[in-house]
Request: fold
Amino acid sequence: MLLAYTEKVRVLLTDMEQEETAIHQAAQLAAEAIAKGGILHCFGAGHSHMIGEELFFRAGGLVPVRPVWIDELLPQHGALRSMEAERKNGWEAIFTEQLDLRPEDVMIVVSTTGRNPAPLAAVRAAKAAGVPVIGITSVKASAETKPRGDAGMRLYEAADVVIDTHVPPGDAVLQDERLDVRFAPVSTVAATTAGHAVAAETVRLLLDWGEEAPVLLSSNIDGADEWNERLIRRWETRIPELRRGGHT
Reply:
């Protein structure tokens, strides 16, 4: 099944090349934020939380990225619990209270369907603080759903910049006549690609503007600790997760 899966991923990533303009627009927001001393918050519930984890403290990635981790929304603290929590109303006040959102920041919200209350609450909390929102979502998968609870609208309708992952409804891309459901999901591959593409374009823009591009070195490269420590000291006040835990 390896070749079947990689072919589906190859087609998906080719489709995502249509998002070059959106990637540039998102990177423009991110680069402007970093140049002003702001940070990039990244929120996703369920498996989407992994995108923030992937962008955070990543060799070759941007240092000023703060993952939004709230235990109740993380599957490692109970998969069914996190699924139910994402569908609950009332998250906006929690995001507002727990996140240090400032107008110079950017919020990245990741959700394949973008229909549940939690990701939309993150959008509203950010906008209330004057923070622009980048949505990473599947427009096709989302368009086939209705907003749940107090979501009000779907992520692709609410974000300032939308990066379409082109993930099919249901996420899975392979099938077998002996099984009634599809299998082999692709949303994490697509969303991670989108996130790293935004980060890469952000680096390019910062360099074009004559700004420092705060990129982390692999800790397994000699001399990396000194390089990274300088950047961590610069951003650790805004991103406490760099040295200790954050959120709840």
In short: Residues 20-241 form a domain with the Rossmann fold fold (CATH 3.40.50.10490).
